[in-house]
Specification:
By secondary structure, the chain is mainly α. The protein has 16 helices and no strands. The chain is globular.
Amino acid sequence: NLYKAGSYDDAVKAYDKAIEINPNNPEAWGNKGAALYGLGRYNDAINAFDKAIEINPKYAATWYNKGLALTAEDKYDDAIQSYDKVIELNPNDAKAWYNKGTLLLDLSKYNESIVCLNNTIAIDPKMAEAWSNEGFALTYLGRYNESLEFYDRATELDSKLPDSWIGKGIALGKLGKHNDSSEAYNNAMEITSRMTEADPKNEHAWLANGDVLYGLGRYNESLQSYGKAIGLNPNDADAWRGKGENLAKLGRYNDSLASYDKAISLNPQNAKAWNGKSEILELFHCDAKAKAAR
């Protein structure tokens, strides 16, 4: 009850008492891990989950929660292994398939991601996020027309999901349908603007707002939105990545490189930050060669 009420500190103390009485109670260890996760103490949560798994390795929920904590620590490969264990124990766990697919998407393993997201959709065809993320995987593979089918299905299921509109805007832009692309981005803008107005402390809303403004080519405004996200959470690697992308578009290459480096230091598996950094370094290299030629 303490955990459900969000009283995580008190919940941890209560679970510690239960563990003191019976150190071999996997449920107490697992629940303690969940409370620690709620407190943002992810490494401590992982340790508690490991203890629960040591006692009972066949409890899928503990493996799932461990995957969440590992993801929060940007340990994507380890998190994927945890979700694999969930799937081994319960092949019809749509959320485990979805989380694994999303991590593979973040790691730029697009074909593997599609396999997982297809399994998610087969189990739960009404999960809009799965349709949207598979759309992104297809977009990154250059399969733009196919991706639009997934974005459209995602928006049918949840018209207030900004990522689907953003992805649709990207794909339409790549297909040269710029008016339709702008319309999709504007739909996303309406959603993210409402989100930031309703909760100015929602870092994810500011991050999404930055993504939309970037897609619309409004780089200074996008930079401000990413700055808001960073102000709320200085450890948000995606916000630093987004800041780097905008600074590059504005020709502020040294500042861009510093932002990409910050993103990579926070999450070494942020593929977009590495790609952005590589582009800047290549630009510097070409500029140096041009000066030498002169």
